[in-house]
Please model this.
Amino acid sequence: MGENGWRWSDAWIFVSLVIASGAGRHRRAASTRRPEGVRLTDVLSTADHLNQAIPERHEVEDAVRRLVGAGLVSVTDGWFRITTDGEQLWRTRPSSGLGTTVDTMQGVLSRRRAPGAAEWSLHEEEHAAAVQEYYVRSIPAPRRSPEGHTRRN
Model:
């Protein structure tokens, strides 16, 4: 794909946003989803589960600029949201297994919409803080016995 076309990382970030926000649940009413959107940590967590890698700062920044510019995503005060157009694009994609969803979505993006170029930046410190928060969330809490005593494994 040329420099002006959609990149795999664009689709990866888009799918991560959709899944993290709950917008991908067809039968879930919009009023039961997170109306404020999701934070960067949620996006990174979902991206890691999809691809066993945490997106680098430049991958997130480039993808969000292109997705926002295309009208598929919005970002306000650190909250990422899928727009109505983004949700419609997601819901009308060909169904595929989770392992091929990002590839399928990249094809859908390439056929149905041109990438945009919005002004948005992700500072290195914000990305690092979100990665750190994700790592902290990933540490399992100590198990407690029925008597309330902490047990270490």
